[in-house]
Amino acid sequence: MGGATEIFLGLGGGERQSLNLSRANRHGLIAGATGTGKTVTLQGLAESFSANGVPVFVADVKGDLAGISMSGSPKFKHADKLEERARELGMDDYAYSDNPAIFWDLYGKQGHPIRTTISEMGPLLLARLMDLNDTQEGVLNIVFRYADEQGLLLLNLDDLQSMLAHTADNAKELSAKYGNVSRASVGAIQRQLLSLDSQGAGQFFGEPALEIDDFIQCDDQGRGYINVLAADQLMRSPKLYATFLLWLLAELFESLPEVGDPEKPKLVFFFDEAHLLFDDAPKALEDKIEQVVRLIRSKGVGVYFVTQNPIDIPEEVAGQLGNRVQHALRAFTPKDKRAIKAAADTFRINPELDVEEAITELRTGEALVSTLLEDGAPSIVQRTLIKPPRSRLGSVTVKERAIIGSISPFDGKYDEEIDRKSAEEMLLQKATDAAATAKEVEEKGEEEVRKRPRKTKSIWEKAFSRGAKVAAGSAAAMAASAMLGKKSRANPMQSGVTSVVGSIATDLAGPVAGRFVRNLIGGLMR
After folding, report:
1. Which of 19, 32, 60, 354 keeps 20 to 30 A from 206, CA to CA?
2. What is the DSSP letter of 379?
3. DSSP per residue over 318-336, as a string?
4. Facing residues of 19 across strands?
5. Helix boundaries (H) for 6-117
């Protein structure tokens, strides 16, 4: 199946309905009322992409998509219906199988933790996350600018809180240089930050930060890994969920090279509960989301929105979604009827099918399907029986999740948080040094104090200090390996030099690089 050019979706109008892999980066929509089969459709699509060597990202909002990592079984619930559907569709090769999966969790409980730094997130997305007004957002921008200029790394919420407190204490001086910085605005931001922390968002900020390329991996059989984000707890903080996924899209856009329209996508991104991205979003934000979705296509990334009601997606964004799977909708209210008409109007007309009527009559596991053809035109909409997935429908046990985690290619890479010296520690050190120096001047006089070395180390001194520690650590590791009969490739001197260079680069370029990424995201978000 790895050499296929299309993904089989089901049978409709007496013909095979398929998704062309070379048009899969033109985005898509999976819509339908609760219980109509959206999750099953998503699961079948994800495992087909994986089988064709395309990595996938999915948010598991109900806890049942994790089953994609396990093979289905004749003993499981609804197995008889799945097998009957396979026979009905003539799937002679239908057999249960698992998929290579990696579990992720912002809270680090059900998978590898996902982290980013405050600097990488930037003031624009943080302002959206904290519901800041324009004045408060302006102050937050000043805080980031000041931190950049002072070489203070903003890695976690504690760093940002310390920076805000420092800003409030020096509001007068900062106002003279950057514009009005009121203590009241700083206080409002601090309160919102505390609220954000109480929702568990603090665990999302820190190091080691996610390397976005880790989402774009294949196993040794050439199958794309399916990255499953545990989102059942995350959904209790819907704004964090939506902001996180928007940040992830922006990171993908920034990191990946232009590829145009490849033979198959580099990554397919399923955005479940997509309405959360647009709820209460200002028009300017909707415009920029539309821009991100349109531009990221050229990076080989396909974005598929999954939602109950198709009118949850603004028209400007919906116009970018070329591949559509519409499950049943119910006409209980005037709004429902408008949604049905809107959904019907998006399809290429089929003279033999009353689309509006069909949307209300679709059975579970049945959908209206229209995908982009080789020439880029949409196919005629067909009432389609959707193929059954081959993996388990349902959740995994705690033991199964642990086993999948233990064989992950990133086992141990993200699990332990690293707390290196950043803004919080540096500001505290500066305050401590200032107090000690003031006391020393009082006792010895200013002229005498000027003769001694400065208390706070320079970038170069810190870098060489780190390098020496790394070299010593590498030497110790070699000795331990020799005692245990293991080979070590570590070179103490090389490791030390590498650490020195890396430390200097981090301290000098870290804030600059963070500013570059934020400016790019800001350009998309403005």
Report:
1. 60
2. P
3. HTT--EEEE-----SSHHH
4. 7
5. 38-51, 79-88
For 55-143, list the strands marked E by DSSP.
56-60, 101-105, 112-113
In this predicted structure, what is the pLDDT of residue 491?
43
Token pair, residue 60, equals 């598991």
Determine phi and psi for 500, rounding to 5 degrees.
Answer: -60, -50
Which two three-digit tokens encode residue 222? Answer: 């050439």
Residues of the chain predicted below pLDDT 50: 1-2, 458-509, 513, 516-517, 520-521, 523, 525-526
- 26-38: string of b/e by CB count within 10 Å (b at 16+)? bbbbbbbbeebbb
E-strand stretches of 339-497? 366-370, 382-386
Closest CA to 370 of 394, 358, 361: 358
Task: Please provide the size of the chain in residues.
Answer: 526
For position 236, what pLDDT does the model report? 87
Instruction: Tell me if residue 444 falls in helix, strand or coil.
Output: helix
Confirm if 242 and 276 have CB atoms less than 8 A apart.
yes
What is the pLDDT, as a whole number, of residue 495?
36
pLDDT in tens, 56-70: 999 999 999 999 999
Q: Which residue has the tokens 């910085």?
A: 181
Give the model's pLDDT for residue 285.
75
Report the pLDDT value the prediction gives residue 455, as an integer from 0 to 100: 52
- How far the first Cα of the chain sits from its last, in Å, is 43
Q: What is the DSSP letter of 376?
A: S
- The values of phi and psi at residue 6, to 5°, are -150, 165
DSSP state of 187: H
Structure tokens at 33: 């009322």
Contacts 24+ apart (CB under 8 A), 307-310: 307/29, 307/30, 307/31, 307/273, 307/274, 307/275, 308/31, 308/32, 308/33, 308/34, 308/38, 308/275, 309/31, 309/275, 309/339, 310/29, 310/31, 310/339, 310/342, 310/343, 310/346
- Look at the alpha carbons of 435, 440, 445, 446 in this order and tell me if their dihedral is positive or negative: negative
Q: In which residue are the tokens 């809270």 written?
A: 107
**Which is nearest to 171 in space by CA: 142, 191, 198?**
142
Task: Match 């070179």 to its residue by tokens.
Answer: 491
CB 162 within 8 A of CB 431: no
Distance, in Å, from the CA atom of 339 to the CA atom of 359, rounded to the nearest integer, reads 10
Question: What is the layout of strands, in order, in the sheet containing 112-113?
Answer: 15-20, 6-12, 382-386, 366-370, 323-326, 28-31, 301-307, 267-272, 56-60, 226-230, 101-105, 112-113
Q: Is the separation of the CB atoms in 388 and 67 below 8 Å?
A: no
Q: What span, in angstroms and rounded, lies between the C-alpha atoms of 56 and 258? A: 19
